[in-house]
Give the backbone structure.
Amino acid sequence: MAAMNQSQNLPAETGELTHLNAAGEAQMVDVSAKPETSREARAQAILSTTDEVLNLLTQGGLPKGDALAVARVAGIMAAKKTSELIPLCHPLALSKASVDFELAADSITVVATVRTRGVTGVEMEALTSASVAALTLYDMIKAVDKAAEIGQVKLLSKSGGKSGDFRAAGYPAEGDAR
């Protein structure tokens, strides 16, 4: 095995925020010079399923129990563990992680909200939370509907930080009816 060149672990000389070091290799971005700000992100995942599953879900009749409660906890846990799941993500002290569900005629929309006060955003935590909650729902319903599909995993909104605020097209502003 070749000896590792220590200079390969140094950030790019330009001082810009980058996932590449001076040798062009992947690294965790050095955010130590960034100021702390309040940050929030919301993300969604949509699980398409059958009327039968939705009826069992609302009546508490799924074979594995309360799928929404289990998926909520899984999503919150995933937000807290994002840096262990997604390479190069910073470990963050989260001040809030929540998962909510919107049931429709043929789908369950998972909406994850994550907050922190820190030097980097929580978009990946919100996306990971929504994704893992949807995967957990699939696991909980697959005995009834193996054909269920997870899709439309996307960032709905983010606030705080240097890059400013973001709101997905069609996603209502805070306080507007959803």
Q: What stands out?
A: The domain at 37-162 is CATH 3.30.70.640 (Alpha-Beta Plaits). The mean pLDDT is 85. Strands lie at 37-48, 94-103, 107-118, 149-159, 166-167.
